[in-house]
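Typical record was shown:
=====
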Amino acid sequence: MKAIMVMFDSLNRRFLPPYGAQGVHAPNFTRLAERTATFDTCYGGSMPCMPARREMHTGRHNFLHRGWGPLEPFDDSVPEILKENGVYTHLVTDHQHYWLDGGATYHPRYNTFELFRGQEGDEWKGHVADPDIPESVPHTANPLRRQDWVNRLYLTEEADHPQTQTFDAGLHFIRTNHREDSWFLQIETFDPHEPFFSYDDYKKLYPDDYDGPHFDWPDYKRVSETPEQVAHLRNQYMALLSMCDRSLGRVLDLMDDLSLWEDTLLIVCTDHGLLLGEHDWWGKNTPPFWGETIHTPLFVWDPRSRVRGERRRSLVQTIDFGPTLLEFFGIARTPDMRGVPLRDTVAADVPIRDAGLFGCFGGHVSVTDGRYVYMRACAAQGNQPLAEYTLMPTHMRGRFPVETLRQAGLAEPFSFTKGVVTLRVPGYSYTDPYAFGTLLYDLENDPEQRSPLVDDDLELRMAKLLTDLLRSEEAPPEQYERLGLPQNGPVTGDHLLVRKQWEQVQAAERPPLTADAFPSSRLGVLTPTRDLLAEPAAEAVLRRHLGALMQSPMLPEAMPFSLLEISELATGLISRETLHAIADDLAGL
């Protein structure tokens, strides 16, 4: 028995023909759906990239206890379990977060792995001189953008592209080992994640008459671009998706050529989707996880049931991928796993859960039963308390600050830490979900989630489902307090938030602030944060208005950005009123 997982990043299901997309050139995704079971109700769990991968390894949600970080020493790892049970595991990937601080413990769990450089702002090629960067749509001062233009100098041909090299390596593994038994191959590409960099052959599939500044990389913020720019960016995404489709087709061709469908499990999936202007937002992480971000595509071929060209409606999640692989190779799940093998669901659409949990550390905590979605915000402005439980104190691109670690203490073990105590470290979020309010949707009557409901009876039912899942996941006490839910005892009408937070729901629809809303001055909310902190008087203004945010470990990442940019990228952390007050005080210096 053999297994292949083809994993994309930021794959929005609404851009795929099997999920109803029109005008998208993706014939191999259509071909894939004809050959597999296509899942209509698959949801991610822990967001975004590395938290999702931790779920795939461990078969359990992790966003309630931890933000972005490595596998912990006490974590189960499905690839490692397979390896220990005689199944050869191999990873090929261009997902650069594997070799950064926040992902460095994942790839060594496989027998062997190959890593390909150059995606996004991967710190790859070293150029001291600045590259030539064309005029671009205005964007924040993200330092990764400079590196990305350096990297592109080395990706002039499609054969050079890390996506191509990743699939080349995956196909090489299959050709080398197709006559062998008991192996698992994970082909994982960062695409179609932004920047939406592809080649003319794919861009020609989506012609437009756009002649404005270069635009293939949106910031994670409210849409402020023109309709022409929005349409152009979507075309760039679709071009890159078509390039992904070609890579997928190469895998399907080789499975045909080598008759691998007879004994090889195939899973084609993604970690999450992406907002491409829907809900007037770009990206992910800051706003609630609407369907474009969390309701994901999934295709599974199981050679045992041989189901092909059929749809599956049962609710499944990312946490089920690892247990599915274990069961396929005849290996039992560990007691810590909450995911369920999909064998019977693929074969006969057998349900495996009544409700699914999803969210991001410090963001909305959400639940769906497949028809309704309930997105629970924090009960009070400020989004506290929050704590991370870890023995691996690193974030995406760095270590926990010493100042934060000085506040750490030892926590009692959770059942999944296998008797191991962890550090309890003050937690911080990139957004304050209070700014968006608590949201409730009926997907049957409102599939695009445009009309949130106020329905006390329905909210109470969904809040009970959510609380049951928090308890089964051993959510730490801070989460119950932050969300305004009982750690023990019944959930009642006193715990409902939709009606109480309706003002925030409506306020979140307001257009974003722009530079012309603030006074013109030497120092202001348009000045990079590092420049403000360089002047004692300006630093004092920030400390007076921002308080605990000035101690956040996110502060070093914020240095290149202005306060206005931070308020756009991290909604709710700095209110409109606070931003205006800071601007007025800085103008007086």
The mean pLDDT is 95. The two ends are 71 Å apart (CA to CA). The longest strand covers residues 2-8. Residues 227-257 form the longest helix (31 residues).
